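Q: How would the C-alpha cells look for this protein?
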Amino acid sequence: MGFVPALLRAWGRLWLAVTCPLPRGFMPITIPFVSANPLSAILPWLAAALLSSVTLVLCLYEGAKAHGIAGNRLFLGTLPFDDPAVNDEFSSAFSDLRRSAPEGAAVDRALSVGLSRLLTPRLAFATGSTWIDRNAQGIANTRGFDTTSLALKGLLYEDDPHETLLSAGIGWGLPGVGSRRLGAHSSIEPGIFFGKGFGDLPHSLSWLRSFAISGALGFEHPTGRGPGSDVIHWGAALQFSTFYLTDRFTGGPPKEEPLFQWVPLIELSADTPTRGNTSATAGVGIAYVGRTCQIAAEVVVPLNREAALNAGVIVSLLLFLDDLIPSVFGKPLLWE
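A: Here is the predicted structure in C-alpha cell form.
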C-alpha cells in the first residue's frame, strides 16, 4: 500500500473522529474501517494518532489573531467552495463520495490540500491540489492528482460595523500536471467571494443576528487540451454563530475576537457547464473555530445523479499559519 493512500485513509479516520477539544457532554464520532492487510491497517492508525496529537496541540495553542473576521462576525472557511478571507493558511479536507465516473459507479476518496500566503495585507497567493483514490467495481483503482492550481485573491471591501467582506481572485489550472483520467486539465478561473453577517440588525430583529451568509461565484474556462465546456461554479452557505448567544456579544464594537465557538452551517454547491447538466449538492455540518485552527465536518447529499449517487462526508482542517509560525508567516511577503 502506498504512503499517500495510507495517509489519505488515516486522515479520513482522524477527522471522522474529531479530536480538537469538545465541550463537556459531547463525544467524538468514530466510523470503523476494515482492512484485510494488517500492515495497511496499522500504519494509517499510527499516522492518525500522530495527526491527532498535533491537532490537539494546535487547537489549544494561544496565538495572536484569526482570520475571516468582520466586526463581531467570523466567516468560516467553507468546505465545497472558497471563502472571502485573505490570509496565511494551510487547508486540508478529506471526502468520501460515491459518484458516476467514466468507468461506471465509483467511490472517490479524496484528500485536498492548499496553501495561502499573504503578499500584502489584502492580497494573497495560493496553490492547491487533490489526491484521489477512485475505486470502480471490476477494474483496478485509479489514483493520482486532479488539477493543480495557482491563484491570486484580493480583499476588495471590508465593513466591520456591517459585518461584510468581499474578495475577488483568479486561478490558473496548471497544464500537464495531474491525471487526465481523474479530470486534471489546464484552465483559467476568475471568481468573487462574499460574506455578510446580520449582527447589525435592529433589536426588533435580534433573533436573526446569529445568522450570516457567504458565497462564491467562479467561471472556469478550459485551456489547452482541457474539456470543451466552460463551467460556472457557484455556492452559498448559511452559518449560525453561537458567539451571539453568549455574553461575549454586547451589540457594540467587538471587545474580543469571536473565537472558540461552534458554527452550524448549511451549504449548497453546484457546477453548471455551458454544455451539459448541472451537478449540485447540499451539505449540513458543524465547525469549531479555535485560536489557531478550524475543524469542520459535513454530510453531503447529492441533489442529482450528476453530483453523486449517495450521501457522503467531508471533513476539513484549516491552520492559521501566522499564529502558529509567526517568525515565518507573521507579516506579508512584500509589504505591510
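The radius of gyration is 20 Å.

Residues 260 and 290 are 5 Å apart (CA to CA).

Upvote if useful.
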